[in-house]
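Technical note accompanying the year-one report. For the benefit of new consortium partners, we illustrate the data format agreed upon in the data management plan: each record pairs a sequence with a C-alpha cell string. No post-processing was applied to the example shown here.
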Amino acid sequence: MAGCCECRPPPLPAEFESTAFWCEENVYILIRQFLLSQQIIEHWDIFAIIISNVDKSAALWDQKLAQQDLYPVVWDYHVVMLLRLRMAHSSEVHQSEGTDDLGDTTGAVCHCWVYDFDTRLGSPCPAEKYITQSFRPCPAQFQSMFRVVPGQDYIDYFASDRSHMLLPSSSQLQIKGQRPEYSKPPPGYSCLVGKKAAEAGVTNNLMQAFVSMDVQGSGTMYGRVFTLQEMVHWISFAQ
C-alpha cells in the first residue's frame, strides 16, 4: 500500500469495546464512531452487513465459537461492518509488493474490508478473504444471504429494545416488576434507537427491518438483499 496511507483500513478505536453476542449493537457503535471521522468518510463508504437467511440458520466458518476448525457456527443472524474504498480514491491506489502491514499477500491493495468481532480471520479482514473463508458449500438451509445497509441509514433507522434476547421467563418477571433476564449479558448502555427511528416513534425494528431476508415481505426494510454470488460480485466491482 505504498504511497496511499489514507487508503489503509482504519484500525478499531483504542477505546472501543465489543459485547459478546450483541453484534448488531457492536456494529452500530463502530459505524457511529467511524462516521464522526472526516478522514474516514472522505475515503470510505461504510455499510452494515446483516447475514442471515429465511430460516435464520446461516452457517459461517472461521468463527471463534466453532468447536472445531472445520465446523461452522450457525447463527440466526450475524452483523458485520464493511468499508469500501470510494471510487474517487481508487485511482490513487498503487500496487504494493510482497506482504503489507495487514498480512495481505496478493500484491494488490484491497478496496473492501470487513470488521467482524467474532471471526478468527482478523479485524479488519480483506473482504474477498472473509467471504471465501467464512462462506463455504453447504446445504441450502444454511446458505447465507446478505442485507447491505448504508452506514448512515443503519445509524438513523436502527432500533432495538433487546426483546429478541429475553429469556421466556422474563415476561413473568416484568409483570412482577422485576428486571428481565437475557440469554446473554446485555451491554451496559441503554437500548439503541436511531434519530429518525425515534422521530417516527419506532422502538424496535431489528428483526423485521434489518434481519429479515424475505424480499417479498411487507413493511419497511432497509438496504438491499444479496445472495452469496451477488455479494461476491458487489465486492469485486469495487476492485
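Partners are asked to follow this layout when depositing records. The CA atoms of residues 15 and 159 lie 24 Å apart.
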